[in-house]
Structures are given as C-alpha cells and as structure tokens.
Amino acid sequence: MATQHSKTAARLMISPAVILLFLWMIVPLSMTLYFSFLRYNLLMPGMESFTGWDNYYYFLTDPAFSAALTNTILLVVGVLLITVVGGVLLALLLDQPFWGQGIVRVLVIAPFFVMPTVSALVWKNMFMNPVNGMFAHIARGLGLPPFDFLSQAPLASIIGIVAWQWLPFATLILLTALQSLDREQMEAAEMDGASALDRFIHITVPHLTRAITVVVLIQTIFLLGVFAEILVTTNGGPGTASTNITYLVYAQSLLNYDVGGGSAGGIVAVVLANIVAIFLMRMIGKNLDA
Fold first, then answer.
1. Transmembrane segments in this chain: where (predicted)?
2. How far apart are CA 230 and CA 64, in angstroms?
3. pLDDT higher than 90, residue 187
C-alpha cells in the first residue's frame, strides 16, 4: 500500500511533464486569445490595435462560416456512417476463418498508417483525376463521360478519402470487440432456431455498442480538425463547397493575412470542439455505465 511519502515523491517526479504539457497547451491558446481581440493584419506590421469583439462578430456573421460549419457537420457525420457501418461489415468478414486471414488483416489495416497528405495526393492524381485517373478510364471503358469528382462533388470526395483512412481504425477496434463475443451464446441461439440476421441484431450489435461509442468519440475529435486532405485536393473550393471550420481559420489567417480574425475563428473552433467533446463524453459515459 502506497504511503504518503511515496505519493508525494510520485507527484514530484511526474510534475515536470505535467507542467511542460500544460505550458505547451496554455501558451499558444493564450496568444490566440490575445490576438483575437486585436486588429492584426500581416500586411500592416506595427499597426495592431485593440478591436474588442469585432473579430468574433465578423467571423460569426461571415457567410463562409455557416457554410463551413455545415460542411464540418456533414464531413464528420458522413465519415462516421461509412466507417462504423463498413467497420462492422469488415470486422464480421475478417472474423471468419479463411486462407490468408493474417495477410488480409494487415492489408485492411494498412491505409491507417498512410499520411493524410500522401493519401489525398494518391486519390487526387491516381483515382479522381478526370483525365488520367482510374475512375476516368473505367468510365471511358463503359462509354460514359469522366466525372470530375473534386470539382462536381468536392465534399463527397473528401468524405470518401477521409473515410478510407479511418475505416481500418474502426475495423480494428470492432474486430477486437467481436472476438470477445461468447461463441457459446451464438451457438445456443442458432440451436434455438435464430437466423443469422436475428443473431446479428440481438447479440452481435448490442455486444459491439461500447466499441462503436469509442470509435465515434475518438474519430469525432480528430475529424473536427481535418485539414490536409482539403488543402491538397480542393483548397476549400469550388467557392466554399468543401471548406470546413479548420480550413476557414487557415484561410482567414494565412491567405487573407488577418491574424486577428483567424485567431477569433480558432477560439470559436476550440469552443465548438469542447462542446462536442463534453456531449460525447456524457453520452458515452452513460453508455458504458449501462
């Protein structure tokens, strides 16, 4: 049993790491908060002045903000639907015994280790290019005109790219949960005459509920910050058709050189992300306690 002396020693040994992480977080956040109240344009150095809440007002009333917020929600929900449904189906497939099972599992998980910028470039140039892409060649082979995905369906294309990256993660978590399912319970249900669909709905899905909530929580936190895929493929366009909150903050700060407005957007993004995180944590906490 730990004594008071050992507890104090443990706190002292871990405190440098905690202090460093705290400073690593609080210093940039404090500077962003400070800049959000300034009229700070990179094209006019030395002309900074206090502007109060104006940056927040202009950012929140900008028509691009409502479009970016809608795109962010659609992106998160779309990727979650694809990865959860696809992850469950892949987990069920990979849980079956077949020849080469280990190799197939490695190949399924491999996309998760590809850098977002690299995967976006691969999809943009090798698959979705309307001239030399694989989809364009397939369309011509079928006698159809090539479809320019990134121009005509930019947000759906980005959802597909991001879902391809996160599908292995969901599959891995759900496969691990599926392997802990009691086989005797499945066999008993089968002997009682339950069909495969009934066993899936009434036994498999309830067993996977906790794993699905973990997948939703972790992916949502990361999906709110999707940036590289948009920058590499569409640059937020056409117009604001594929602009999310993260890209809007980048455009405001580094493309429009408005550091004050971009900082205000960054604070707004942090607040929205924390609201979503708190909501998800409460929902998942209730689920795990059930």
1. 12-37, 73-94, 106-123, 155-178, 208-228, 264-284
2. 15
3. no
CA–CA separation, 281 vs 290, rounded Å?
A: 14
Q: Is 263 exposed, middle or buried (0-12, 13-18, 19+ CB in 10 A)?
A: buried
Phi, psi of 192 (to 5 degrees): -80, 0
Given a contact cutoff of 8 angstroms between Cβ atoms, the answer to whether 129 and 136 are in contact is yes
Kindly report the average pLDDT of the chain as a whole number. 87
Rounded Cα–Cα distance for residues 67 and 154 (Å)? 14
Three-point CA angle 180, 166, 116, nearest 5°:
145
Mind listing the pLDDT tens digit for each residue in 212-221? 888 998 899 8
CA angle 218, 238, 146 (to 5 degrees): 95
In words, the CATH class of domain 53-289 is: mainly alpha
Q: pLDDT digits over 114-131, tens only?
A: 889 999 999 999 999 998
**One-letter amino acid of 261:** G
Residue ranges per structural domain of the chain: 53-289
* Interatomic CA distance for residues 128 and 258, integer angstroms: 33
